[in-house]
Amino acid sequence: MMYLGMVIRFSAFLLLLTIVFFSFGYAIWYPSIRRYRPVIGGVKYMSVRVYIDGDISEPYGNCTIGYIGRDMYGRRYIVSASHCFNWTRSGVGWIWTMHQPKLYSNERYGYIGSLSFINQYVDAAFISPITNTRAKILTKLPSGTPYKAKVVNYYHISEIKNNILKNKIILKTGYSSGVTRGSFIGYRQVLYLAGRPLYYVVLIDIPTQDGDSGGPSYTAKWVFQRGRRYYVLNLIGILSANPYYAWFISVHGIELMTGVKPITYNV
Description:
Blueprint: H1 2-29, E1 39-41, E2 44-51, E3 56-64, E4 67-70, E5 76-80, E6 94-99, E7 111-119, E8 124-129, E9 133-138, E10 148-154, H2 157-161, E11 170-174, E12 178-193, E13 196-205, E14 216-225, E15 228-241, E16 246-250, H3 251-258, E17 261-262
Parallel strand pairs: 1-9, 10-15
Antiparallel strand pairs: 2-3, 2-6, 4-5, 4-17, 5-8, 6-7, 7-8, 9-10, 11-12, 11-14, 12-13, 13-16, 14-15, 15-16
């Protein structure tokens, strides 16, 4: 009887160990171009227009998740680019939704959340998620092992005007081109795109591809705290468009226009 009890306890231990290793392996190795829960910046999603009455859905396009923000009332949002939702709000009888590719065959659309509101002047869309969201950005994509980094700070407009980003290596995470790096070109209070004004624009010489829109730009460095080393990101903005060189809307500019501030700690 004692031997049977030992076998049962050892089997339970092995089962627990398997679950732990599977969960850890899933979090580390699962490709970022597919679904990543809880929702983390830098991964792929699809915007879909859904008609409520007829249960009809129209996929619009693929983009990249930016970061996690929170308004003054404590409501959390996934922040991305509004042009990923055709620059428009929901209409009568239809809504915009956000999806990641399905993980299981019995899932429908891989639904994440629904569009709450947009602001065209900073090309920002705010999606209310159905999962817990974390203030992290995936800093390596399918070519390497993905790992998560804490977002602990973001640049203010005044600091960008003072060229604090000059001579710094700036990175961008997009699901199409992965993590690419470039340099700061300049800052514009307003930039006209096909007659549409965009405010708080950071110009960056950095490679991008279709599908990277909405993805985050940031600087990165190692810091030491209490004997431990952390890879820390300083969030700059989200990708808006890229015909010749990339421009990003400053996250501080988004906060000024919408009241949504990035969550700058790990939750």
